[in-house]
Amino acid sequence: MGQNVKLVAKTLFGLEDVLFNELKTLGALHLFKGQRMVSFEGDTGFIYKANLACRTAIKILKPIHEFEAKDEQAYYNEMFAFDWSELISLENTFAIDATVFSETFTHSKYIALRCKDAIVDQFREKLGSRPNIDTENPDIRINVHIHMHQVTISLDSSGVSLHQRGYRVATSLAPINEVLAAGLLLLAGWDGQCDFLDPMCGSGTILIEAAMIAANIPANLHRKQFAFEKWADWDENLFNTIKESLLKKTKDITCRINGFDMDFQAIKKSKINISNAMLEDFIDVDTQDFFTSSKAKAEKLFILCNPPYDERLSIDTQSFYASIGNTLKKHYTNTEAWLITSNYDAIKSVGLKPSEKIKVFNGSLEARLLKYDIYEGSKRNKE
Asked: How many domains would you assign to the chain?
């Protein structure tokens, strides 16, 4: 499977610890946690494994070259000096993504453009011709990362973001990112330990991620393609061996996973996505108003939901969040309930004191993942 190399897994803010633990469990070596990333070491087989199994990774990158650049000209010169023919041939298509955190380099699209210019200029000078750009489905995807004056060139082994699992074809208004959904569940400690409910399930993303965690199903099992499949050293037999090994570690789901939504169209879409994920035997969804519902069993229930923040829907958030709190208190005792929201004023209307608050981001919105322990009787009596 080759020697170990340095690799980088990118993630969302607030999910670094979860990603670190995922990679460690999978067998990564020499891990280091940074902001929105975890660096580690692994071989070719581990690149395949990380892409298949990591629930909270957005990209798995393979750094191939680093240098310092004080200005744009130095950046271009270094890019031109690097031997791109080791990675790209005239027959290949390529694309470049860039991220910048620098006072000198401030425009990621321009940085990507200048990298493209250097590659094209080098090929024209050496061979009199150039490879083509394909932003949609390139043979080689290159990632450029600049922090201050430090430039890192990496091969993108994933391709499109790993949050695009492959099962979600029908979406409701502002669906939650799959990586964020899995991250919230893992932050909350979900592992299939009891029955589960998402009372505002939309198109079913949280339900599907909850079921995949409970069954230990690889996160990206349904992806049709990864970028590494177009690399020169692509080993299909090794990939299939690793995939089969991961599938042997799946387990039966012993809990029930349920979802409510008042919107019939949302429930219809969730059923399509659940079917695509081949989880219809384990997830039940119904058109139901959470505020008129009651807990079905006396045993412990785990709730995680993404209620509207007043960003997606025009609602009376104070009244809406008060109804969440009242429903939990009156009809959902013996429940561990988790909510994600960016509406901090509305949180106060829940009328319950959260036992945990975790800072996360939902897209560009700074949010909190809040835990509410719903006891029968007072918390003091429970203790």
From this structure: 2
Looking at the domain assignment, is residue 255 inside a domain?
Answer: yes
CA-CA distance, 300 to 194, in Å (whole number)? Answer: 6
* pLDDT tens-digit map of 150-194: 999 999 999 999 999 999 987 766 689 999 999 999 999 999 999
Please, which residues have CB within 8 angstroms of residue 80's CB and are 6 or more apart in sequence? Answer: 118, 121, 122
The CATH number of the domain holding residue 37 is: 3.30.2130.30
CA torsion 250→256→260→264, rounded to 10°? 70
CA distances from 224 to 7, 165, 278 (A): 23, 9, 15
Q: How far is CA 230 from CA 94, 137, 156, 201, 215, in A?
A: 11, 10, 11, 37, 30
Please report where in the chains the tokens 């940074």 appear, as a residue. Answer: 34
For the chain, the straight-line distance linking the first and the last C-alpha, in angstroms and rounded, comes to 53
Query: 67 - beta bridge partners?
Result: 151
Rg (CA), the chain: 23
Query: At 311, is the pLDDT very low, low, confident or very high (cuts 50, 70, 90)?
Result: low
As separate numbers, helices (DSSP H) first and strands (DSSP E) second, the chain gives: 11, 15
- Taken in order 239, 240, 241, 243, the sign of the CA dihedral is positive
Q: What is the pLDDT of residues 180-236, one digit of tens each?
A: 999 999 999 999 999 999 999 999 999 999 999 999 999 999 999 999 999 989 999
